[in-house]
Amino acid sequence: MLLLLVVTLLIGRFGKILKQVSVQNQNHVIIKESVPESAALGKLLFDVKGQHLFVGSEVISLTDKECQVLELLHKNFGELIPRDTLMQKIWIDEGVITGRSLDMFVSKLRKKLSADPDLRITNIHGKGYRLEIVNDFVV
Predict the structure, then answer these.
(1) Model confidence at 95, in pLDDT bands (50, 70, 90)?
(2) Model's pTM, two decimal places?
(3) How far apart are CA 25 and CA 105, in angstroms?
(4) Sheet containing 119-124, strands listed edge to edge, beginning at the edge strand earlier in sequence
(5) Which long-range contacts (CB under 8 A, 24 or more apart) does 49-54 make?
């Protein structure tokens, strides 16, 4: 009985730590598991829990799916996330989905992120998406 209590306490203690570590899925893509409740995203502030983007005094609301897509892209900022990985992580419990659903949410997110012209969701044709900051400086 005491052993069961100790094991339960250890799992509770180390389970929280393990959730913050990167994991690999079947496609060998690293998906980071923890994101702060609010995070700077270029010139924007991303409130994950409240599902909002803040630009100065403007508040941009996000839908559940938009927030989930942006959260995954943010967790893996600058890294390519395959389309299949995004679809599996976001629509895992919803049965049949199409790639066009993902494209639609990315399109909506691009419009909402347009307040910062340097912040972009880049499409790598046939591969996936990447959230990145693109500097247009010419020297």
Answers:
(1) low
(2) 0.69
(3) 23
(4) 81-82, 128-133, 119-124
(5) 53/112, 53/113, 53/115
